[in-house]
Design goal:
The protein has one domain. It has one helix at about 15-105; strands at about 1-5, 5-10. The chain contains one helix and two strands; from the N terminus they run E-E-H. It starts with a strand and ends with a helix. Keywords: Coiled coil.
Length: about 110
């Protein structure tokens, strides 16, 4: 068994060249771990960026829906007001001739 900076390496029944290759591989493992950590950090950052983008998209969609709702609400209010004005206009048309007729009986 050989002791290396990264830990223990057990070798049984291998030639000297194979042992040297195993030691080299074992020494490279920390580099591979560093690379893995870098990849994980990069993946984490990409994930965070995606979450941020989704949050922004969600906020935009909520604002758009609010605007649509407000427009629809205004449209309904305007339609009701128009109907009310139309009804009052019709009533006024019906009442006005009667007022003129009633006023014709008055003497000045």
């Amino acid at each position: 068994m050989f002791r290396t900076a990264g830990g223990n390496l057990s070798v049984t029944g291998n030639s000297e060249i194979e042992v040297e290759e195993l030691i080299q591989q074992h020494r490279q493992e920390p580099q591979d771990k560093d690379l893995l950590i870098k990849r994980l950090k990069r993946g984490s950052q990409v994930f965070e960026d995606n979450v941020t983008q989704l949050e922004n998209d969600y906020e935009k969609e909520v604002l758009e829906l609010k605007k649509k709702f407000e427009l629809e609400n205004r449209k309904i209010i305007l339609e009701r007001e128009t109907e009310s004005l139309s009804i009052s206009g019709e009533v006024q048309k019906q009442i006005q001739p009667k007022l003129i007729q009633d006023n014709s009986n008055l003497t000045i």
